[in-house]
Specification:
Blueprint (H helix, E strand, L loop, with lengths): L1 H4 L12 E6 L8 H9 L8 E5 L2 H9 L4 E5 H15 L12 H8 L2
Antiparallel strand pairs: 1-2, 1-3
Pfam families: Ribosomal_L30 (PF00327)
Protein name: Large ribosomal subunit protein uL30m
Family: Belongs to the universal ribosomal protein uL30 family.
Length: 110
Amino acid sequence: MSAFNKFKASVPVAWSPNLYITLVRGIPGTRRLHRRTLEALRLRKCNRTVMRWNTPTVRGMLQQVKRLVAVETEEMFKARKENEAKHRALRPPVVVSHFPASAANSSKQP
């Protein structure tokens, strides 16, 4: 969740045509107005992301629930997803030899 904190409520949203909105805090315990706003944005569960057009209406809704959501531009969203994919990518296995270097060399030579 700390990865979202640097994007949260500080994104320059005026120049991006699409906004990626992620619900990062839970809905229970929030005001009814905030719940209805999240419902209008189609955010129902935590850590779900939706794409919305960057319009004044959507920006006003985001201003209302800015403590509950993280807003990313299209470039930021793609970069984050790419970093997550790289992190999950398969890595070559680590091979550890428990023999000392001299013993490993002498055991191979008859």
